[in-house]
Amino acid sequence: MSPSTPDDATKHLVQADARLKAVTKRFGPPPARTVLAPKLRYDRLATSILHQQLAGAAAQAICRRVGELAGGPLTAEFVLDCDPEAIRSCGVSASKLVALTDLAAHVADGRLQLAKLARLDDEVVIGQLVAVRGIGRWTAQMFLMSALARPDVWPVDDFGVRAGWTVLTGAPEHPKPKALDALAEPYRPHRSALAWYCWQLADEAKEQRR
What's the pTM? Predict the structure, then answer.
């Protein structure tokens, strides 16, 4: 069986919920995603860690400086071999350096085999990732969606997803994560696309309020 396409996802979502017909026409199909090469997966996770609790511009500046120090995408080997103070001088906080080092250690000793993640079920990948300091379930889910191109990830703790769902359904308030998880059952196996549409709706509503 060939992999599903963004158009397949859109068709399924509209069949599951007629309210999405106008939404999918307005925003078009969700972006097509491809599986990230294993050699770039450490860098993707490290970038996620570096972006946590920072404004976009500040995080991007730090990532750029760290990338310049590494001479390219970050790797576990670089982080373990580099002088910690050199990484700190790029603006990396002490706690994030600990997280980057813990991620590198998990890769180096085989607890986290980045090249094999694409073969594992979603929850197994999440379980391995959240064992790393600084990586929570939301970060793991974003990695599944972006780096592993998984089609059925539903990040119920994401504020944008909850806000977009409220716009879509006209609910009086954002649903609790557990309730939202159950509400999205009819949209399987394309909940990653549903999350993308929720983000578009949330962003659109935010712009309209300005």
Answer: 0.94
Buried b or exposed e, range 153-174, using 16+ CB within 10 angstroms: bbbbebebbbbbbbbbeeeeee
pLDDT band, residue 1 (cuts 50/70/90): very low
Q: Are 130 and 137 in contact (CB under 8 A)?
A: yes
Q: What is the mean pLDDT of residues 194-200?
A: 98
Domain with residue 57: its CATH number is 1.10.340.30
Question: Is 204 found in the same domain as 127?
Answer: no
Side-chain half-sphere exposure of 121, counting CA atoms within 13 A: 3
Is the domain of 196 the same as that of 114? no
